């Protein structure tokens, strides 16, 4: 079942609320691989959003590997399921490569991570 709520009162932009909601439902197993999701226009009308807002969320989800578009058949939850762990792992490896090139020790590298986590609110 595809259930999305977007709050106009939230400080989080609507496209990000939509993206985070879909991702959360994939992680929880509510939306499983192969589940067809509404068209951009249908979801925009249902939520009272501009089609461009929904399209942006869908593009970001597709870029992250959460959605796949099959032409005229529509958009579906990707067969790979939740790609976030893989993406996070790649990002972590990239970060380690960067701090090694900069000559930082492990404690300094971890300190930057802690500072960044504290400065950024959790997603979703």
From TrEMBL:
Residues 12-80 form the HTH gntR-type domain. InterPro entries: Tscrpt_reg_HTH_GntR, WH-like_DNA-bd_sf, WH_DNA-bd_sf. Keywords: DNA-binding, Transcription, Transcription regulation. It holds the Pfam family GntR. The keyword NADP does not apply. The keyword Transcription regulation applies. CDD domains: WHTH_GntR (cd07377). This is GntR family transcriptional regulator.
